[in-house]
Every structure is written in C-alpha cells, then in structure tokens.
Amino acid sequence: MYPYIRLAKEILNARRAPKLGLLDTHESTHICWPWDIDPWRELNNGRTLTLYDLGRVPLGIRTGLSATVLQNGWGMAIAGNSTRYRKRVTAFQAITMRSRCVGWDDRFLYIDQTMWRGAECTSQMLARSAFTSRNGIVPPTQVIAAMGENPASPPLPAWVADWIAADATRPWPPHP
C-alpha cells in the first residue's frame, strides 16, 4: 500500500518549512519500517522508489513548483529514472534523503535524489519529470517562467546529459 500517512506528514512539514530556491536541496529523515523490507530483510527496491516520492513532493511544495502546477491546471509525472542501489538499508534504520532539481531541457525537469545512512550513500536516483496538460507536455521553461523564475536552465551536469543521450538510443517501443 502507498504510504499516504507518511506522505501527509511530509506535506505538513514542507508547508511549515522555509521556502527553497528552485535548485536548493530538500532534506528529510525517514525510517525503514518492517513493511518496507523484502524477503532479504532489506529496503525493497520498489519501495525505495516510492520513498523517493516523499522527497520530491515536499521539494515541489517548498520551491513553489507544486503551487504553480496546480494554479495552471497542469500535472506532473515521472517520465523515467535511473537508480543505483549501493548499501543495504534494514528495518528500523534511519536514512536521510536529499532531493534537488539539477536542471531542465525542452521536455523534462531532472531531479537528483539520494538516501544516506550517516556519511554513507545507500542509493541514488535520477528522475526526469514531465509537466502535463490536456494538450500534452508543457515545456519546463513555461512552468519555470510561470513561477517567476529565469526559464534558462543551468548547465546540466555531464553525467545527467550523458544519461539523457544514452536513454535516447534505447528503442521505443521496446522489441517484443
């Protein structure tokens, strides 16, 4: 089941927290509960992706992105991601999640998210998010401008640009 209660807690905390700039980092702390683990007694890889929602939603609230999207009747959807799993997270361990926007191109906003146990990174996800409307994808520059921000993206980090280029070579639809 989706962690709606945890999401509600994060939304309330984000509404009370200071505002962030669009490229600033949102940080939150989470616990790996027994219902988050898999048969190997560690944080389930699918649940990790769900927990990353608990960082992106508050980031959107604190930056004002969510309010702009709602005011304009737009939606947001994850349009792809790449995740690295490096260290185990087991039941009852606390992790610190860091979520930040690293830039955008003509179609997507790119978000870098990491989970940390102390000074050790346990996982990292790069997500691309699309803004949607009844007419299709809304260019991120239009969304950023509606926020009252400079619509020009900072240069994307090389590893993000390389991921975009590599993903563009992947066939769609996939071969049967």
Automatic annotation (TrEMBL):
It comes from Gemmobacter aquatilis. This is Acyl-CoA thioesterase FadM. InterPro entries: HotDog_dom_sf, THEM6_lcsJ_thioesterase. SUPFAM superfamilies: Thioesterase/thiol ester dehydrase-isomerase. Pfam families: 4HBT_2. Gene3D superfamilies: Hotdog Thioesterase (3.10.129.10).
